[in-house]
Amino acid sequence: MRLGYTFAKAIDDGQDALVVGRPGNVQNSYALNLERGLSVTDQRSRLVASAIYQPKRFDLGSQWANAVANGWQVSSVFTYGTGRPINATMAGDPNQDNNTYNDRLPGYRRNAFIGPDYCTTDIRVTRSLRLGERVNLQVLVESFNTFNRLNAQITISDDGFLNSAGQFVAFSTKAAGKVYPGQFLRSSNFLSPNNAYAPRQVQLSIRANF
Predict the structure, then answer these.
(1) What is the 3-state secondary structure (H, E, C) of the chain?
(2) Neighbouring C-alpha atoms within 13 Å toward the C-beta of 130
(3) pLDDT of residue 182
(4) The dihedral sign for the CA sequence 156, 159, 160, 163
(5) C-alpha to C-alpha distance for 199 and 130, rounded to whole angstroms
(6) I want to staple 23 with a disulfide (CB 3.0 to 4.6 A). Which of 99, 108, 121, 132 is the partner?
(7) Contact partners, residue 67, CB within 8 Å, separation at least 6
(8) pLDDT confidence of residue 19
(9) Taking the chain (210 residues) in consecutive chunks of 10 residues, what is each chunk's mean pLDDT?
């Protein structure tokens, strides 16, 4: 059995381009104290436990019974991690710098929100069969996210680095005698999960060792 727990905090001033061919997401490169915040790789707590159980070979007094009862192995991995940071980016390019990836909801620092946690249990059952003196055949049944837990995500992009807290509408608005060049429309469901990691998956495989 193995058990590992990590408590960590990752802080930086913002990465350059997170995706090849996309501009960086730093809003103000000349005021890094305003960009300092949680890194996209930050995860406060992570717990991983694993176990392998393989009983010793025993004799049931019958060749067929021994063949059926022996050679089994069961293993499992349990993983739990707290949520990762979410950046309250805004659509519409409010600062008009021709970079649509570095604008944030006013009043919030970079990666100011935390997304949902993640938990999964994987199980493997292995049956070993010896074919002669040189070949060992293994039949494996593996189940990923065995309990089919809903591991929600908050993202609207295919790479996971972009979400939107709202939209900036660039038209002039006059209020109380003052003219404003645009307005921010905050999304009411910004922190509502709209995606998920993989559900339960089961696969069967055969491996020959020789």
Answers:
(1) CEEEEEECCCEECCCCCCCCCCCCCCCCCCCHHHHCEECCCCCCEEEEEEEEECCCCCCCCCHHHHHHHCCEEEEEEEEEECCCEECCEEECCCCCCCCCCCCECCCCCCCCEECCCEEEEEEEEEEEEEECCCEEEEEEEEEECCCCCCCEECCCCCCCCCCCCEEEECCCEEECCEEECCEEEECCCCCCCCEECCCCEEEEEEEEEC
(2) 7
(3) 79
(4) negative
(5) 34
(6) 99
(7) none
(8) 62
(9) 96 70 67 79 96 87 79 95 88 80 82 92 93 88 97 69 73 78 80 88 93
The whole-angstrom separation of Cα 199 and Cα 146 is 9
Q: Kindly report the number of other CB atoms within 10 A of residue 104's CB atom.
A: 21
Structure tokens belonging to residue 162: 């972009």
Could you give the angle at the alpha carbon of 17 between the alpha carbons of 13 and 23, nearest 5°?
Answer: 110
Sign of dihedral through CA atoms 167, 168, 172, 173? positive
Question: Can you give the pLDDT at residue 20?
Answer: 64
Q: Which tokens is 157 given?
A: 């992009």
Hey, what amino acid is at 197? Y
Q: What is the per-residue pLDDT for 127?
A: 92
Rounded to a whole number of angstroms, the distance between the first and last alpha carbons of the chain is 28
Nearest-5° Cα angle at 129, 124 to 130 = 140
